Every structure is written in structure tokens, then in C-alpha cells.
Fold this sequence. Notes:
Pfam families: DUF6089. The chain is 23% helix and 33% strand.
Amino acid sequence: MTYRPIFTLGILSALLVGGSRHEGYAQSRSNPQFLPYSKVGFGLGTSTYFGDLAGYSRPLKSLFTLPRWNVGVMYGRQFTPRIGVRASFTWARITGDDYTYSKSDPLTYSPQFVRNLHFRNDLKEFALIGTYDFIPGGRTPRDRPKLTPYALLGVALVAHNPKALTGRAAEGQPDSTQRWVALQPLGTEGQGQPGYAKPYSLVTISVPIGIGVRYKLSEYLDLAAEIRMTPTFSDYLDDVGGNYPNPADLATPLARAFSNRGFTIDANGNATIKELYAARTGESRQAGLNQLTAAGINPDEFLQRGGGSRIPLKDSYLLTSFQIHYIIPAKIKCPPIR
């Protein structure tokens, strides 16, 4: 495990907290009556993955094809009428599936239909996030507005572990013999073998950015809803990022099976799809490549395992969340009687 993401997160966290405290000090001098307060919260929502198996170029399709869940807890501190900082832990599941994404129109999504990869990944996110309220609060927590829209920006450390299902048919029907297998130790793109890259890290940094709205339920309770996009510095939340390796260079039969799943494709007798498949696997390779070129399709899209998107971004995930916040009662200090 590399310590560079942890070191970078520490620097960004210090800057975020330091900036918030400086802002709080400046506003406390201009508004000495404001009383900082703390809160704790719990939330539930959905999680959606964006990456090689769910492209950025078709955001609505990617957003609604395979949503999953997230659950989180947080502790926050409101330093000024507008500025707050919170620390949170979120457990989120994301998933991607070439077959599910492309089965409605195999010709339009032919590179994915032919590639036929899938994964799921449980993310453990530790985040430090700053919030900015567009409507300032009053002197005490009980004076906060009834409805408060806000923006958020932060940094997070994310532990992840992509997995895939053994013995999975193209249509994805499970049976009792199947199991989820961690993909990173397999080196599905040759990682760790001579002449290939080193294994990718299972820890990365992300940058949560989003918007939300809070509703004051009572003196000590808020209901909040928010949505945030969370780009990461990893291209391997899905275990897909580079080229197909030479199968002979892979260490185990399981690694070879998960590296190239095109051989499990069910083309349903569609001649065009079979020819596209032939271009990728080597059967009648040149004839297949010539047909792709004649059809105006870039043959390289079928020769790459990942990284062929027209929008060259790392993997990311989008979280929606409905939260309940409890305001910790603040002690009001009265001035001494002289």
C-alpha cells in the first residue's frame, strides 16, 4: 500500500480545516454574537458508478442503468453563519456490467457488448468536507433558517476492492456454484508480471463536490438531501484501464478467464456482432478490422480493454443521500456580573 494518497489527503485536509477556521475567526470578529455548534448525522441513498463500463459520454444512461446503495454517518461543526466542516464515513456499493449496459442495442454499444466485463466494488470513504450555506444562520442553532440550500467541497480517502462473479453467463443468471472473486490480486491486465505495470492501489483519493438542502424539523433536528459527484484519482475502481495482456503472461487460469470475457459472449446469431467479435479475438482478424473501418468504427476500440473513452477521465461515483441531523445543544455562556 502506498502512503502518497494518505500524505496528500493530510495536506488537503489541513488546508480545508485551516481555511474554515480562519473564515470562522474573521466572521466571529464581525459577528461576535454567533455561537458555533456541532451536529451528528446519519444518511441513506443511492450510488452510481462512472468509468469504462458506464461512460461519461452518455450520463443519463450511465446514471440509471445500475444504481446501488450507500449508507453513512457524520460529525459536523458549524463555525460561522455560513461555513461548516464535517467528517464522515460512507460505505457505498457500485457496480458495472457491459452486457446489461449494451444488451438493448448491441450494435450501438458493440465494443462493450463484445468485451462483456462486469464488476462490483464496496467503497469505504473517509471524507472531510466543507459546506457553504447560501442563507446564513442566526445567532444560535435554534435561529437557523427553515430551509437552507448549501454547496459542499472536500477531500476523501477511499478504500476499494473490485470483484467479479465466477462462472457468470452473458445474461448474468447466478447459481449456487458462483462466488465473487477479488480482481486486483489476479492482475487481469498483466499487473505485477515482467514487462507490465505494478498492481494498482486499493486506496485512492477522491474529491467530493455537490449541492444539498436542509430543512429544519425542530429545534434540534434537520432533514437534509444532497447529491455529490466524487471523481477519484484511480482508473481501476472497475479493474479496467489498459490493454489486453498476452494470455500466456497471466499467472493463473482464473486471471485469464477474467481478463478476456469475450469468449463467453452470446451473439444470438447476429452476424455483424460475430464479425466484430472476430476482429477482437483474432479469428478472421483482418477481415473484421476492414469491416469496422468501412463502417466508420475505430478498430482500436475493440483492441483495448479499457481507456478507450472519448472523454479521458478517471473513474468516479455519484452519491445521493437523505440524512437526519441532530444538533448538539450548545452551552450559552453568560457574561460575568460585575
